[in-house]
Structure formats: structure tokens, C-alpha cells
Amino acid sequence: MNQPDLAAQWTLDPAVTFLNHGSFGACPRAVQAERARWLDRLEREPVTLLVRDLEGLLAEVRGELARYLGCQADDLALVSNATEGVGTVVRSLTWKQDDEVLLIDHAYNACKNAAEVELGRFGGRCVVAPVLFPLTGPDDVIESILQHVSVHTKLAIIDHITSPTAIVLPIERIVAELQGRGVDVLVDGAHAPGMVPLDLDKLGAAYYTGNCHKWLCAPKGAAFLHVRRDRQPLIRPLVISHGANSLRSNTSRFRIEFDWTGTRDPSPWLAIPAAIATMAELLPGGWPDVYAYNHQLALDSRQLLCQALGIEPPCPADMLGSMAAVILPEGLQPAGGAGDTDALHLWLFERGFDLPIMWRNGKRILRVSCQLYNQRAQYLRLAELLRGLPHNHS
Questions:
Q1: How far is Cα 101 from Cα 153, in angstroms, rounded to an integer?
Q2: pTM, whole model, 2 decimals?
Q3: What angle do CA 25, 28, 33 make, to 5 degrees?
């Protein structure tokens, strides 16, 4: 594949081979500069920005973001991260005893916690559908989810792209199947914006939350919650502020309450349009080229790792986006690391590689991320390092 050398567009430490974009993202220089411009304006005249200008500025941000996401600007609320988006929905809904929230066992732990804590206050519970890993295809996921729907299922929280296993789920089919059974779906799309094309209006999920600071490369603290118009009367921000008793009638209560929840630094949100534009300008074909480049690099990196370790890919190629996860062979350990779950991660970090290693059902999973600043040679070096590790079966 034709590999551009775009590392200079980021400020990442050149001494570290950073294969961990999926954890917190990384913000390009141009976007950092745009955020700094907004911070300078904020501190030069705080009242002008926060009181006089912010509502209009955020409307412009939501407009640009809505065009990218394929939705209506007034259906978006800006939040700090996808976990806040999930928490906003589960805290807003009315629960009663025996209500159930359906998740899968690849779900992000923080989101599962948000649901469990809220339902626990009312005698409800979370039901977790196990999804195979390795899996053979999308049907494995859909069948398991549908088998766990009951008359008590009030909401399903489903990942668009799983965090620990990097699987792009068949979210369109899942939403259609569940909502066709009367179960609202909250899509945890933490990784989706900037990794895969989105059309939220077409998807039609009751709720969708996603981060802008990951694959969209906006500053940390930039995310959104999309609420379908008919569900907006149900949803209120986690922080109740002046909008709760506002007498304004020129816009919706949803808009009034979410657009101001108190004093905060709005610069991550205000830099979202710059992130969308900056990333599109890095390759000739814009965002379609970004998706294609990162996807192909994920496929190539997975192939290199599987060949080096003598393992099979754990999911079909068309269920990958810009990340790939592999199940490491049993007993793969650096010298002296047996029994230490972090030993391999630390061993790789000491050799200049930053990437997560997680455990699932007793198996160690290594996940690589692929962003425009990465090169195939980096994954080749990682594969060679892992190839040289002993397999300790004692």
C-alpha cells in the first residue's frame, strides 16, 4: 500500500512507537493550534465568549458535526466523552423493578457500570449476552443478542466497535432487529466517528453516543450524544442548570438544557470542525481515503502478527475498522514475567512500544491501532519482537 509520511502532523514522541490511538486518540498540530486560539479568546474576554457568543458558536459546531454524522444538528448534544453520553441516557430514563438492560460481554466496562449502578437503585438488572471471540461472522453476534431479549428488556446498550476486541459489529442489523422488537437501542459508538462512515438518521437508533477525540482527532473532552427526536423529551443532562426553568420558547428544552450546564472550557468542542477538516485534508480523497488507509493498515498489521505468532485471525476482515486485536498464544511471556498480567505490556513499553494488552476469558489479547501517522514497518518490528518471545507452558 502507498504509505504517506504524516507523522510530522502530530506531536507524538518520536522515541515511542505509538500503536495505541484507540485509547485516547492523538490530536494533530493544526487542531491543537485551533484549540489554543479558542482558549486565548476565552481568557481574553470570558463573558463575551461564554455569555454572548457561545450559543451561536456551538450551533455552528453542531452543524458541521451533523453534516459529518448524517443527522440533524438539533438532535445532537455535546458532551465530554461517550461514557458521559451513556450515563446521560441511563440516568434520564425511568426504571422499575425487573427492568433489564441488555449488553454484550465485549461491552466497555465503564458503560456497563453506569447501567448496573442505575438499575440497581430500582431493582433492575443488566443481562449480558456472550459473543464468541474468535467469531465466524456477524450472525454470531446477532443470534446471541436476540437470544437474550426478554419481556423485561427496556434498553440495549450495544457497541458499534468493541473496545477490547476491535470488532465492527453489524450495528444496522442489530438496531433494526432490536427496535423491531420494541427495544430501544443506545449505541456506544465511542470508536466509530473517524473510523467508519456514519449516517445516524438512516441508522435510526433511539440514542447514539460517540467520541470526537479518538479517530476524529479532536481535542480530549469532545464527544456527542445523538437523541432521536421522539426520545428527546425523556433525556436530560447529567448536570441540571439554568435551562431547567428557562422561559425561552424559541427552541427545545433539550437544546436549552444541554447547551449550558455551567462554566467549562468549551475549546475541545469548538475545535471539532477543525479536526474534521484537518483530517480530510491529509489525503487526496479526504475521509474515504482515511478510512481505507487505516483499514488496510489494520489488515496488514494483523496479518504480520498472526504470521509471527502462528495464530489465526479471530474475526473476518470485513469486521475490522482501524484497529485489530489478536489472541496471544498461551504462555507467551517475557523472561521473568510469568504470573504478572502486565509483564508483556511493560516489556513492550520498555522497548518503545505503546499499545494495550488486555485479558478476556483467561486469554491475553493484544490490540493495535492504525492512524495516518503509523507505518507498516512499525507493526513489522512489533511482530518480530513477539516472534522472539518464549512460550512458557509451565
A1: 6
A2: 0.95
A3: 125
